[in-house]
Amino acid sequence: MFEEIRFHTIERLPNYVFAEVNAIKMAARRDGADIIDFSMGNPEGRTPKHIVDKLCESAQKDKTHGYSVSAGIYKLRLAICEWYRQKYGVSLDPETEAVAVMGSKEGFVHLTQAIINPGDVAVVPDPAYPIHTQAFIIAGGNVAKMPLSFNDKFELDENKFFDDLTRTIHASSPKPKYVVVNFPHNPTTVTVQKSFYERLVALSKQERFYIISDIAYADLCFDGYKTPSIFEVEGAKDVAVETYTLSKSYNMAGWRVGFVCGNKRLIAALKKIKSWFDYGMFTPIQVAATFALESGSECVEEISAGYKRRQEVLIESFAQAGWQLNAPQASMFIWAKIPPVAAHLGSLEFSKQLLIKAGVAVSPGVGFGEGGEGYVRIALIENENRIRQAARNIKKYLREFK
Fold it and tell me: Model confidence at 2, in pLDDT bands (50, 70, 90)?
């Protein structure tokens, strides 16, 4: 009887490609294997001490242990708007244009649940961070995929992007209501300039779609590159929202704190649905997050510099192992083309063999969409000694193909 009950939302979700690699990884660890794990974007460093101290101080106060505010305490929303003012010269209203969320991933899912009608279409570049696609499916919408084209420096090919986007919009029925962009991009690390957002805002007004921009890796930039915000473009708040998280910039991944800002109508929808879903983050977390945003960028710059050092060590040591990689301008990842000698394996089988034979875990590119085939994502989360050990292991593995 109960087998006849269908769970249609779950049935629309694909099998989790990463699960197969994760199962092998966990089995190897249970058997005592030492796995060097580059597979998940989980910062391994501790949260800066001044932020932790502020959390502990706030947690000692009795009044901070009750229900909080689902949209975020006012001081946090004010700090979010001040962060935008200082970093981008952008003015936001903390009451109507900013909402604190339990991590940008959760905020993204709640936003889609608030704004998607059954059958609505969103355009998402491929490959993509999985939730950027699946959030719309969970909410009852549909996704139109389009390829993400870039050069060897992981810079977006703007002209091709807009040709593909325009073609995708006109080929879709019904017409897309939303376009998702995420730069610096996960998984590919692709970056854009302000000119990209100028063209995107203009197109959104012409074709009448909303933009959801994710800048989770905005602070992890190298060699003089600076991540732009869509709100640097005049009129962007008419058509866009932007999400950010403290997870990467401040090593606060487990705290689950981020924010969504921008268009008043979309922000109001998110605030309303959150008022039904939750009572907000634990108040001391919000107090500490406020303090983090108000305390300047010194710790963020140190964290970013640490990723740059790891990036340099990884590219150098992997090159010595026979795996040539290009350096991105931003993010905590390397988007790595499979070595030519192993390209025939495909990203999933290559990832499995790398784990079994070299003790090195990476994320198969196909897990991020068809456009990710031929690549793996390497997260810069292991220390420099572990990176060099991984390179030695990989060198031995690649010798098998000669």
Answer: low
Give the closest residue to 45 by CA, choosing from 287, 309, 291: 309
Beta bridge partners of 375: 337
Number of domains in the chain: 2
β-pair partners for 245: 258
Rg (alpha carbons) of the chain, rounded to whole number: 21
User: What is the Cα–Cα distance from 396 to 157, expressed in whole angstroms?
Assistant: 36
Sequence-distant (≥ 6) Cβ neighbours of residue 138 within 8 angstroms: 9, 13, 109, 112, 113
Residue 399 structure tokens: 């010798």
Write out pLDDT tens, residues 34-55.
Answer: 899 999 888 888 999 999 999 9
Apex 286 CA angle, 285 and 291, nearest 5: 95
User: Could you tell me which residues come within 8 angstroms of residue 152 by beta carbon, excluding any fewer than 6 positions away?
Assistant: 326
- Which pLDDT score is estimated for 1? 58
Give whole-number Cα distances, 204 to 216, 231, 365, 373, 375, in Å.
Answer: 22, 14, 29, 30, 31
Same domain, 20 and 108: no
Instruction: Write out the two tokens for 49.
Output: 């001490």
Asked whether residue 52 is domain-assigned, the answer is no
Q: Which domain holds residue 160?
A: 66-294
The answer to whether position 116 is within a domain reads yes
Q: Does residue 271 sit in the same domain as residue 243?
A: yes
In a domain, 54, yes or no: no
**Cis status, amide bond into 340, omega within 30 of 0:** no
Both 187 and 246 in one domain: the answer is: yes
53 falls within a domain? no
pLDDT at 377: 97
Q: What is the pLDDT of residues 271-322, one digit of tens each?
A: 999 999 998 999 999 999 999 999 988 999 999 999 999 999 999 999 999 9
Enter the DSSP assignment of 99.
Answer: E
- Residue 80 reports pLDDT greater than 80: yes
